[in-house]
């Protein structure tokens, strides 16, 4: 793993720097490149604007690893409010949640109940909950919870999950999830993982992404390919065209503020594109992972900061 990537991922877990940045005006200003804003209304405004550009949205109320059940309930309440507001305003947006924000590390049963309530609420309003994937210690727990929720008729079809192409285990996970009819978002993976569980070389991660994307595309389940990598996007497009897979059978997903030109181009070409829109005051770990993916972002941000 390149040194800079590791350094940014290590910084993403630094509590004092996190406190300092999240509370500083400069920090908030820098983060605005990747984050819709601090409030629910900021997220809804961005969702409306992205919808206006022909793309759907998934909303992430930022936060992870809560310390108390009360914090988890508070985080879930924001999502319940969002589900109601999305229905009320007829926005084309679903929600992305992290199980650690719902208390997974306090008690998996507790987090499962919170996720269950959200999935039921989503289903009742014709919406959908995507469970983001976190580090590899939580992969099995996360998949087990999603599978159990999907098995219950009140949540069936309203819950999906994320698979990371950098994990060796992902092919068998993909096969099982698709057999259960669970919608997958495929991404490369954003955490620091040891070579015992994840491909250390980017070329191998990319090759696995392409291999897994074929399974997703061939399946009758509506899946998502989440990447800004043009080589991955081209590989998906080529496979779909070659195998007669219609453009409305899957979607591309990208993060808010990243590769906006590519997002627009795909819409013009008739593909479904969903933008992942994060918002809220707990933006620091998310922001640092974006810097880890592309350390040149630091220069980019600094240049824009001093220019404005
Ligand atoms: P790669 O990192 O190879 O980048 C390809 C090109 O894209 C770069 O050369 C650059 O041009 C551009 N690019 C990529 N990242 C950039 C950045 N931060 N800033 C500017 N340009 C950038 N991960 C995870 O572990 N669990 C999850 O649940 C999710 N969820 C998720 C949802 C969505 C919608 C997306 C798009 C991504 C995720 N991820 C994720 C993150 C994912 O695992 C991965 O870290 C990033 O998407 C970067 O990988 P790429 O596929 O973009 O390729």
Chain-wise SSE layout:
Blueprint lengths: L2 H9 L3 H8 L2 H7 L8 H13 L3 E6 L7 H20 L4 E5 L10 H17 L4 E3 L7 H12 L8 E6 L5 H10 L3 E5 L14 H17 L4 E4 L3 H13 L7 E6 L4 H9 L3 E8 L4 H10 L2 H12 L1
Parallel strand pairs: 1-2, 1-8, 2-3, 3-4, 4-5, 5-6, 6-7, 7-8
Helix pairs in contact: 1-12, 5-6, 6-7, 8-9, 9-10
The structure holds dihydroflavine-adenine dinucleotide (FDA).
Dihydroflavine-adenine dinucleotide binds next to strand 4, strand 7 and helix 12.
Fold and architecture overview:
It is a single chain. The chain has 308 residues and is of the alpha/beta class. The protein is built from 13 helices and eight strands. It has an eight-stranded parallel barrel with strand order 1-2-3-4-5-6-7-8, surrounded by seven helices. Strand 5, helix 9 (202-218) and strand 6 form a beta-alpha-beta unit. The longest helix is centred in the first third of the chain and has 20 residues, at 69-88. The structure holds dihydroflavine-adenine dinucleotide (FDA).
